[in-house]
Design brief:
four-stranded antiparallel sheet; globular; eight-stranded mixed sheet; binds ligand DP6; 9 helices; about 40% helix; alpha+beta; single chain
């Protein structure tokens, strides 16, 4: 039997996509159809402990102090099964995970959650995976999680059907560029459609999906170049196009998926107003109503004040570039 250390913990940070991923080339293997580029954030952290235990008859999954729901547990067990297969291990596991997110953040934790789970489970099973293999393992559960394996600026290329090894790779370390991301949490929007379901609906029904597939790589290339050049105006403009184009696919799906709340538009207007006053600040939104504004460190306090005053914005906080996944015994 493979030698294994039995238990391990991992800590991973969430990330924000500057160039968005929306759409799959292979649903079964979870392969993105477009390249994406992200910034790993400090502040939004998931900590996960995995223990393989011979006394267990079933996997036990606890999230934030409660028993995981059936669908949450199913995704965790799928990841554990991949790890067990690789390690030739039959033992069931005890998984305990905590999200250290600012309260009422209303933000998705699947990126940090699956990155931490991939690292903790493979370590506990005695698999000495390098970052690339960890990233591919995390990607199979949630593509954005592949990016959270690395700190700073990260890219996940588009893949082809069957490309089981597709993984993210780092572009630049957190110290490369001292940016700030101001998160403006808004009042809840319409009931959320999960990103996996939303992407599939867009692929099957949005008349704009093909043109999204055509354009997304162009924005990703621009954003990658702008990161290397530390050119915030170029990065920001392409980042806004990327987010608006993916939301356009979502909105024009059948039935439509509108993630925004009135405060989303309010916060977008605030960001545009600041730009008209000469501040280089740019907005992005994920599969929810919250607005995240990217700016230089010197403008962060002003941007935060303006977003705080925007009607319907319930909370704001400031994040900066964070580290990649860390594992301990
Ligand atoms: C809009 O990574 O949550 O946040 O691979 O189906 O788990 P799955 O999707 P997920 O999608 C994230 C979508 C997004 C954009 C992004 O983070 O790139």
């Amino acid at each position: 039997m493979t030698e294994f250390s039995n238990e391990a913990s991992a800590r991973a940070c969430a990330n924000i996509a500057l160039a968005k991923y929306w759409g799959k080339a292979d649903v079964k293997r979870n392969i993105p159809a477009v390249p994406s580029i992200s910034l790993t954030l400090d502040q939004l952290v998931t900590e996960t402990r995995v223990r393989f235990d011979e006394s267990l008859k079933l996997d036990v999954v606890r999230l934030d102090g409660r028993r995981a729901t059936e669908s949450e547990a199913a995704r965790v067990v799928t990841m554990l099964d991949r790890v067990r297969k690789e390690a030739r291990l039959r033992l069931k596991a005890h998984v305990v995970s905590h999200n250290h997110f600012p309260t009422a953040a209303g933000l998705a934790s699947s990126a940090s959650g699956f990155a931490a789970l991939a690292a903790a489970a493979s370590e506990a099973a005695g698999l000495r995976f390098n970052a690339r293999r960890l990233s591919a393992l995390a990607r199979a559960s949630s593509a954005s999680a592949a990016r959270s394996i690395y700190g700073g600026f990260v890219e996940l290329p588009a893949g082809n059907r069957g490309d089981a090894e597709l993984a993210a790779r780092p572009i630049a370390a957190p110290e490369h560029w001292n940016l700030r991301l101001i998160v403006a949490a808004t009042e809840p929007g319409p009931k959320k459609v999960g990103s996996t379901e939303g992407m599939e609906r867009s692929r099957k029904t949005s008349p704009y999906y093909e043109s999204w597939l055509d354009s997304a790589p162009k924005w990703a290339r621009k954003i990658k170049r702008a990161i290397k050049d530390r050119d915030l105006d170029t990065l920001g403009a392409a980042m806004e196009q990327s987010t608006l184009a993916f939301h356009c696919c979502a909105i024009t799906s059948d039935p439509p998926i509108l993630y925004w709340a009135p405060a989303t538009l309010g916060a977008l207007a605030t960001v545009r107003g600041l730009r008209e006053d000469g501040v280089s600040v740019w907005a992005t939104m994920d599969a929810g109503p919250h607005v995240k504004a990217l700016c230089g460190v010197g403008d962060a306090a002003r941007v935060r004040r303006a977003l705080k005053r925007t009607a319907g914005v319930t909370r704001t906080w400031v994040a900066k570039a964070g580290p990649g996944v860390g594992v301990s015994a």
